[in-house]
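Per your request, structure below.
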């Protein structure tokens, strides 16, 4: 029951940042929020699913019995397809042993693993906050329009 409360409060927090209308869940059937249209898939169905739409949220539970049977390659394929094609934002509930895979795919940790004694971690990927744009990456430092009539390049 506590897990459902955590998922509900997390969905409320994510909805406040960006509206969530459609969500994709892999690993377990979740229907926590009635305002969100949920679509559930198992791993094999999802990996063979053609791209038809981009969902607002992808929710993956690596801590279920179904997910224990897949290997790291299938986990990486699932996350990459979800990240690159299917979802704008992804939340992953995983074991601590999946940290290396998730970090290598650009996920950031939501719950510090040292703050609890359980073998789980909560990760997210949001394309809007994935990379901070550096100050030098703008037209001010590239085109130099103030020098167009002064120097011959």
């Amino acid at each position: 029951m506590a897990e459902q409360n955590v998922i509900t409060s997390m969905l409320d927090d994510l909805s406040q940042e960006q509206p969530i209308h459609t969500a994709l869940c892999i690993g377990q059937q979740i229907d926590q929020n009635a305002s969100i249209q949920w679509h559930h898939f198992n791993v094999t169905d999802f990996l063979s699913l053609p791209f038809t739409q981009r969902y607002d949220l992808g929710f993956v539970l690596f801590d279920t019995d179904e997910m224990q049977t897949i290997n790291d390659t299938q986990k990486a394929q699932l996350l990459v397809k979800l990240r690159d094609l299917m979802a704008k934002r992804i939340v992953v509930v995983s074991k601590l042993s999946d940290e290396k895979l998730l970090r290598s795919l650009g996920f950031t940790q939501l719950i510090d693993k040292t703050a609890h004694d359980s073998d789980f971690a909560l990760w997210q990927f949001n394309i809007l906050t994935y990379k901070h744009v550096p100050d030098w990456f703008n037209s001010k430092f590239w085109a130099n329009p103030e020098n167009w009539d002064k120097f011959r390049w």
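The mean pLDDT is 80.

Regards,
D.
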